[in-house]
Amino acid sequence: MNALTVSAPYFSLIIPAYNEEAYLPVLLDSVAAARARYPGGADDIEVVVVDNASTDATADLARASGCRVVREDRRVIAAVRNTGARHARGQVFVFVDADNIMHPGTFDAIDKSLSTGKVIAGSTGVNMQRMSLGIAVTYALMVPLVWLTRMDTGVVFCRRDDFEKIGGYNEDLLFAEDVQLLWDLMRLGWKQGRKLSRIRTVKATYSTRKFDKHGDWHWLGLMFRFIYGLLFSKSSLDKFAHIYWYGNQRSKPDPADPQQKLKAEAQHFCDGF
Fold first, then answer.
1. Cβ 23 vs Cβ 55: under 8 Å
2. pLDDT recorded at residue 241
3. Are 177 and 84 in contact (CB under 8 A)?
4. What is the pLDDT of residues 5-36, one digit of tens each?
5. Sequence-separated (6 or more) residues with CB below 8 Å from residue 224
6. E strand or H helix at 88
């Protein structure tokens, strides 16, 4: 009998993490709640944290929470996610960013979605950590694209076999690697009569730290910059990506009470279910 079916968990939750000591504990608390609620049992879900050359206590915090920790020094998010997948043992890969908060019913909902046989992959979508006019406008501009493609953000999932068939995440991309992954899976699914799924009943809570740092309207300017870079100057787009997504500094939660603020938000989110 295949050893995978005997000893391996069903789910592998893969979390890329670079200097995430301020956010990771809150995510892991929400993961623990989701594992406890999964009918298949918590042992059927492994948690793999990929330490992306952190210089803070990210790796230590992950180990203390019982996560498997692997290291990837390349500062390319697609490579970090792929490294987690290579070390994962589960049949279903689940990806979430370290500054998100997971809905407690996530694993059960993913299991039910994949068990239909009609779904190749999917995502949960998100609720924003906070809302403002600028964030609401940005969110609204994204909605039509999500409706048309069924490609969303939040917690992303697929089967190991399908992930390997498409070659995983494209490591040539500095950003939008998650969009490319879902696009590649969607194309594979077309050939097999399977589609992407949006499980909107278990939306993750999405961190607004980029908005906190750069302003609630900054994404509108970024959209024009992306379009210009794609059409006229890919090198300038890559340079910008290094600064915006790979800068050495992490924006922190409220310095007055970083953990309590996030934990209160996580508890408020989970109390509704």
1. no
2. 77
3. no
4. 457 999 999 999 999 999 999 999 999 999 99
5. none
6. none
How many whole angstroms separate alpha carbon 114 and alpha carbon 98?
A: 24
Residue located via tokens 């969009």: 179
Question: What is the reported pTM?
Answer: 0.85
The DSSP letter of residue 23 is T
| Nearest by Cα to 128 from 203, 34, 16 | 203
Q: Is 137 helix (H, G, I), strand (E, B) or coil?
A: helix
Q: How far apart, in whole angstroms, are the C-alpha atoms of residue 252 and residue 235?
A: 29
Q: What's the CA gap between 117 and 169, in Å, rounded?
A: 23
Amino acid identity at 139: Y
Show the DSSP H helices in the chain as ranges. 3-7, 24-37, 58-64, 77-87, 106-115, 133-149, 160-165, 177-192, 209-214, 218-232, 234-246, 258-271
Tokens of 222: 């970024």
